[in-house]
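Lab notebook page, bench 4
Experiment: in silico fold of construct C2
Operator: M.H.
Input chain length: 107 residues
Purpose: comparison with the prior construct
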Amino acid sequence: MRIIKHPILGPLKKTKEVNITVDGKTIKAFEGEPIASALIAAGILAFRKTIKKGSPRGYFCGIGRCTDCMMIVDGVRNVRTCITPVKEGMKIETQIGLKESKTNDSN
């Protein structure tokens, strides 16, 4: 589901449709839209999992201030998907925890 007519931002400006890969699955997205928007439109709501309990995290603040939407994008960990624009061919992966090391991570 996409918001196509926002009461403040106005109508959705569609750009070129591109393909991105999320955990091995190809989905359609609009070039330049935030990665998080493309994921939500494709029904993907969990972006990362906490390391201790495996609790899912997803879209929360939408302005790049929190860490809930962080994913691995093209091999780079801790990318804030709510503010990172989609590009053709991106490879996006669910992230476990936040730090580079997968040990001693409390998130």
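Observations: The longest strand covers residues 17-22. Strands lie at 5-6, 10-11, 17-22, 25-30, 48-49, 56-57, 70-73, 76-80, 91-93, 95-96.
Next step: discuss at group meeting.
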